[in-house]
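Hey, resending since the last one bounced:
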Amino acid sequence: MNDSQEMGKNQPPSGRWKLIFGICLAVALIAVARFFNVQVIIKNVLESIANLGPWGPAAFILIYIVATVLFIPGSLLTLGSGVLFGVVGGSICVSIGSILGASCAFLIGRYLTRNWVSKQIEGNQKFKSIDIAVAKEGWKIVLLTRLSPIFPFNLLNYAFGVTQVSFKDYFFASWIGMIPGTVMYVYIGSLAGSLAALGSPGRSRTAAEWALYGIGLLATIALTVYVTRIAKKALDEKISP
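The structure tokens again:
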């Protein structure tokens, strides 16, 4: 019996299942990216959700959770929620979907694909610094990274799973930290007026409507930029050598 066979024999069953899950997840991600036009699929999904009536919000949240776990960018979904549910309803749906998706990814990273995630971030000095800072500051670092746009949202969900932060601190700090960006993108999406108009000029509006939307948009962007700058500065100070 050769060495590889011996290693396979000695590998615990739980470890094998974790490896199999990690491989299946990687294959699924590659397949989605290679064979499907994700943006077209998301637009079709949003149009289907629009026809579900009272079940629409629940379906949207479920889709957002799946997209987060599968590393599918959620920007178009977030913009679409503004069209489907308005600023308030869209913000609530995206907030619930994003935190539940982020929590699922965190638990997967911690308990099922820990070794794979560790390899993905082992050469990233920024994530190493975060790991050290999390051990000292916990939820504060999670909150700051959520407010700062320099960290990739989807990978960060898995990356925190291999740090020492508790699930409770991760959950609440992530939820709070994602709210400003969520509201801003949902608001921008609401300006489109229809799903077909996402990424293109919306319907004609009166001067009063444009003034109201413009003031609200500027205020939202200003608040988000201001909070983000504070977060980035504080984060740099905390994770600097």
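Residues 75-111 form the longest helix (37 residues).

Sorry for the duplicate.
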